[in-house]
Amino acid sequence: MLPYGRQSVSEEDVAAVTAVLSGDWLTTGPHVAEFESAISAMVGGHRAVSCTSGTAALHIAYAALGLGPGDEVVTTPMTFVATASTASLLGATIVFADVEEDTALIDPGAVSALVGDRTRVVAAVDYAGHPCDYDRLNELAAGVGAVTLADAAHSVGGTSHGRPVGDLADITTMSFFPTKNLTTGEGGAVVAKDPALAQRAAEFHNIGLIRDPDRFEITDQGPWHQEVHELGLNYRLTDIGSALGLSQLRRLQQFKQRRAEIKDRYDQALDGVAGVRVPVRRDDVDPAWHLYPLRVLDGRRREVFEKMRAAGIGVQVNYLPVYWHPVYARMGYRRGMCPHAEAFYAEELSLPMFPDLTDTQVDHVVEQLVEALH
C-alpha cells in the first residue's frame, strides 16, 4: 500500500540519534536547547518550547494562556479534534466558525460574527499547509481583547506575505509527527511572541517546576531546591527526538520544495479531469504542502476512496468536522452549523503527499484516480 504520508529519514538522521544514544544525555540535555534555538531562529527569534506532540503543544498553549471555564475559543471544525479538545479539557467553551468555501481555512467573516466579550482565543488551523489570513484574524481578536493561536501542525516551513509560520499569530503550535513536514518521532513545539507567555508555557510543560531563586516562596532550603507555583505536566521532548529534529530541520526547505513539486504535478495532471477540484492557493502565501486535499464531486468520495484503497493507494480523509464527534454531539453541537466545512468534508480526499514520493508514483496515483472516476 502506497501511504498517504510518511517520514523521510536519512543516514544523517540515524547518525544524529545514534550519537545521542552513545552520550550522557537522553533527555533534558543540550540537544533540546539547541533544537528550541533552531526553531526560534526559523520563526523570527520568538521563544520556542519543544514538547512531546502537537496535541501537547495545544494543551500547553491554552494552559499558558490561563484558559478556563467561562472562556470561549473560536476555532474551525475542519481540523483534527485536538485543536478543540485540549481547550475543552481546560473547561473552555468551543465556538465553531465556518471555513472558506475554497480553501477550507477558517473564514474571518464567520469569526467576525462570533467573537465577543468572552472570546479569549481565536484558534486558526493552517489546513493542508496553507497559512490562514492572520492579518484579519489578529485584527478581529485584538478588537475583543483576545489572542490568536495558529495551529501550524501542517504548515511548518511555510510563509505568508514574506513572514514565516511562527511569526503570524500571537502563539503558534507545531507538530513533528512522522507524517508532518519534519519529524522528531513524536513531538511538537509552542512558539510565543510574548516572553512571559513563553515562560508560562515552558513551566507548564516541565511539571510547573520553578528553579529561579529570585522567585522562590520557600527561601530556607539548599541549592537543590525547586518548587511548584502552578500545576503542570511532563510534556518534555527528549534529546533523542531533538537530535532527530535538528537533523530534519537542515532538510526542511528541501522537503518543502519537493512537496511543492508534487502539488504542482498533481495540479497539472488533474487539470481538466471531470469530477474533481484541486486545492487552491492564495496570493502572497507560500505553503508547505502537508496534504493534497482533492475534492471529489457528485457524491462519489466514498466510492473513489474505496477503489483507490483497493488499488493499493493509501488515500485518506482529513477531517471529520470536529463537532460531529460524539463527545461534542453530547455537548449539544449539531450538524449543519458550518455548511462550508461539512460540504468540504463530504468531498475531501487526501492523495499521497510526502517528500520521498517519486514522479512515477505521483503519475501512478493519478492513473488510478482517473480509472476510479470512470
TrEMBL record:
InterPro entries linked to this entry: DegT/StrS_aminotransferase, PyrdxlP-dep_Trfase, PyrdxlP-dep_Trfase_major, PyrdxlP-dep_Trfase_small
Gene Ontology molecular function, alphabetical: transaminase activity
Family matches, as Pfam families: DegT_DnrJ_EryC1 (PF01041)
UniProt keyword terms in alphabetical order: Aminotransferase, Pyridoxal phosphate, Transferase
Cofactor(s) of this protein: pyridoxal 5'-phosphate
Keyword field contains Transferase: yes
Family matches, as Gene3D superfamilies: Aspartate Aminotransferase, domain 1 (3.90.1150.10), Type I PLP-dependent aspartate aminotransferase-like (Major domain) (3.40.640.10)
Family under the similarity heading: Belongs to the DegT/DnrJ/EryC1 family.
Descriptive protein name: DegT/DnrJ/EryC1/StrS family aminotransferase
Annotated organism of origin: Nocardioides jiangsuensis
Lineage, uppermost ranks: Bacteria, Bacillati, Actinomycetota, Actinomycetes, Propionibacteriales
